[in-house]
């Protein structure tokens, strides 16, 4: 089985309060990489590794995906990125990408996150099937009532107008822990007639 694996160590002996120790795997181009013009705008294919800044503490996994229709590259960010677990000791970060479009992130050899390249990234690789139409509105004749009486409904032929709406449950008994001294007057339970 052929798979991609990127593994490297990070040691922040003075700690890392604000900064990134992630790695970018640059995108190959016909012109080659112009190192003199290298900057944070230089195209990359995968960005992976720890990042800490303020409240942010995570292991980035971002990949750039080329839309086969538009030809435009778009960054796909792992939605539930694990904590970086950076310390003053050496930390080993591993990214594994499998041929079946799954991935796993390991920190010091232990699995920290895993999932699908197609389902666990934002924005998704495959567009969602339905999107909300912001310009859509209710028709002018929209009825707000949840239920509407059926004007054509009629009672069954054997309907008995004199039958009580409820009947006593003759099998009902008081519970064993019933408090006879309670002042409240409680009516016996009722059974509703079954409609067949």
From TrEMBL:
UniProt topology in membrane: Single-pass membrane protein
Principal subcellular localisation of the protein: endoplasmic reticulum
Keywords from the named record: Chaperone, Endoplasmic reticulum, Membrane, Transmembrane, Transmembrane helix
Any one GO cellular component localisation term in the record: endoplasmic reticulum membrane
Pfam families: Calreticulin
GO molecular function: calcium ion binding; unfolded protein binding
UniProt xrefs under InterPro entries: Calret/calnex (IPR001580), Calret/calnex_CS (IPR018124), Calreticulin/calnexin_P_dom_sf (IPR009033), ConA-like_dom_sf (IPR013320)
Spans annotated as Disordered: 147-196
Compartments where located: Endoplasmic reticulum membrane
Entry keyword annotation includes Magnesium: no
Presence of keyword Hydrolase: no
PROSITE patterns assigned to the protein according to its UniProt record, in alphabetical order: CALRETICULIN_2 (PS00804)
Biological process annotations from GO: ERAD pathway; protein folding
Composition bias, Basic and acidic residues: 147-157
Family: Belongs to the calreticulin family.
Protein name: Calreticulin
Species of provenance: Linnemannia elongata AG-77
